Amino acid sequence: MNKPKKNRTTSPSRIKQEQRRAELALQKKRTRLLLIGSTLLVVVIFAALFVLATKNTDNPGGAANPVSFNYDELPRLGKADAPVKLVEFGDYKCPACARFSIVMKPLLVQEYIETGKAALYFVNMSFLGPDSKTASLAALSVYHQNNEAFWTYYDALYANQGNEDTVWATEDFLVELAQSANLPIDYDLLRKDIQNRTYAGELNRDNAIAKTNDVRSTPTLYINGIKADNIFNLSAVSAQIESAAKAAGTE
């Protein structure tokens, strides 16, 4: 005769022990995942900081790597011994450059250039069209005839700027503009320089300076070799100029 099987049941204490073991195992797993995640986050943060530090060190124009310009070979507005040197990269066909010339430059001239604290220099970055180069060649011709006339011509070019999408900076236009501005130069020589591309070498040099220093847009402004972040924010530019003047040992 078969004996009936006993009904085996788990005691409440055993159930609690199993639950406790499961909870401990789950807690260990969560702790392990948290540690792994924290470690990965720390690694990512340090990697990002390393990349940022490297970028700031390697990129020209950063505080750790200011650009060195040969100021003597550039058109200059202001005193040669001014402690703060502003270098603008510009294209005469660039609408934003025209805005800088009309809006920002007069403020910088009044506040810093006329007071002797800063001088403004110009580097051509002619990339918007073939007549960008023609305009630059004309401006370089004016510069080599008369540095003061260069800045009058600079203003006239931007004040009379044509549409960015059209070819407006032609030889005739550029010579006539110089005549309209009554520049104290030889207009026949200006025309000859444009035709012969007399200063093509200097224009290539300027564009090479832009490329070497990773200048990607116009206008771009450097203040004692350090790139300005927002050149249409007068407060920001002024703060950087004052900081540069202080670093140069002037008030």
Overview of the structural elements:
The chain is α+β, with helices and mostly antiparallel strands. It folds into 2 domains: 13-58; 71-247, Glutaredoxin (3-Layer(aba) Sandwich), CATH 3.40.30. It has helices at 12-58, 95-113, 130-145, 147-159, 171-180, 187-196, 200-212, 234-247; strands at 76-77, 84-90, 118-124, 220-223, 226-227. It has a 5-stranded mixed sheet with strand order 1-3-2-4-5, with helices on both faces. Helix 3 packs antiparallel against helix 4. The protein is elongated, with a radius of gyration of 33 Å. It starts with 11 loop residues before the first helix and ends with a helix. The relative contact order is 0.13. Residues 76-242 form the Thioredoxin-like fold domain. The chain crosses the membrane at residues 33-53. This is Protein-disulfide isomerase.
Please give the structural blueprint.
Blueprint: H1 12-58, E1 76-77, E2 84-90, H2 95-113, E3 118-124, H3 130-145, H4 147-159, H5 171-180, H6 187-196, H7 200-212, E4 220-223, E5 226-227, H8 234-247
Parallel strand pairs: 2-3
Antiparallel strand pairs: 1-3, 2-4, 4-5
Helix pairs in contact: 2-4, 3-4, 3-6, 5-6
End-to-end Cα distance: 114 Å
Shape: elongated
- CATH superfamily placement of the largest domain: Glutaredoxin
Would you give the CATH topology of the largest domain? Glutaredoxin
Question: How is the main sheet built?
Answer: 5 strands, mixed
Known CATH architecture of the largest domain: 3-Layer(aba) Sandwich
| Proportion in helices | 55-70%
Identify the CATH class of the largest domain.
Answer: Alpha Beta
Strand content: 5-15%
Taken together, the total number of domains comes to 2
Poorly predicted spans: 48-57
